[in-house]
Specification:
Elements (H helix, E strand, L loop, with lengths): L3 E7 L3 E8 L6 E4 L3 H14 L2 E8 L6 H19 L8 E8 L2 E8 L5 E5 L6 E2 L2 E2 L2 H13 L2 E8 L3 H20 L16
Parallel strand pairs: 3-4, 7-10
Antiparallel strand pairs: 1-2, 2-4, 5-6, 6-10, 8-9
Helix pairs in contact: 1-4, 2-3
């Protein structure tokens, strides 16, 4: 069974399309109009071994907020759809990723109970045309619509580019671990019988 999903969201502010294959090889095609954000989504796909396509047209003349947040919504929805009933998945994933002086930890639970803890100070306000504070907005939208309990913690770091890059790589790796199937798991990984 292919764990693939495509989602689309069109509002008065954005038009977003995304396709996600969980059992991929890290092939990506991303165009959001925000170069640094594209780079982060490409890293997420590559390090999570997800095949990922994202196209976004947003009101960038205002700023990047709507585009980044709505991309998080659509990717979260695609993840939830691709996971289906979550039978056989490991459910939990944790990754520590260094990027030069930066070290980020991402730990997550595909719990169906969305919650974000974002414990990272981003020293610079912008990286290229990307507002640094949108990192948290993306993660909040993604976790909410994917049904993830998501913890992000910065253990060290001074360079904002390095910090955000470490976070996105760690997110990909942790999610790859959590979405993997394990033949030993009967049904879903919960004593309740559902997640």
């Amino acid at each position: 069974m292919s764990r693939t999903a495509s989602m689309e969201r069109v509002t008065g502010e954005t038009a977003i399309k995304a396709a996600l294959t969980l059992d991929g090889s890290g092939q990506t095609a991303v165009a959001t109009g925000i170069g640094f954000f594209d780079h982060m989504l490409i890293l997420f796909g590559k390090h999570g071994l997800f095949d990922l396509t994202v196209t976004a047209n947003g009101d960038l003349q205002v700023d990047g907020h709507h585009t980044v947040e709505d991309t998080g919504i659509v990717l979260g929805q695609a993840l939830a759809k691709a996971l289906g009933d979550k039978t056989g998945i490991k459910r939990y994933g944790t990754a520590f990723v260094p990027m030069d002086e930066a070290l980020a930890m991402v730990s997550l639970d595909i719990s169906g109970r969305p919650y974000l803890v974002f414990d990272a100070v981003l020293p610079g306000e912008r990286v290229g045309q990307f507002d640094s504070e949108l990192t948290e907005e993306f993660l909040r939208a993604f976790s909410l619509h994917a049904g993830l309990t998501l913890h992000v913690r910065l253990l060290s770091g001074r360079n904002t580019h390095h910090i955000i890059e470490a976070i996105f790589k760690a997110l990909g790796r942790a999610l790859d671990e959590a979405t993997r199937r394990d033949d030993r798991i009967q049904g879903v990984m919960s004593t309740k019988g559902t997640i």
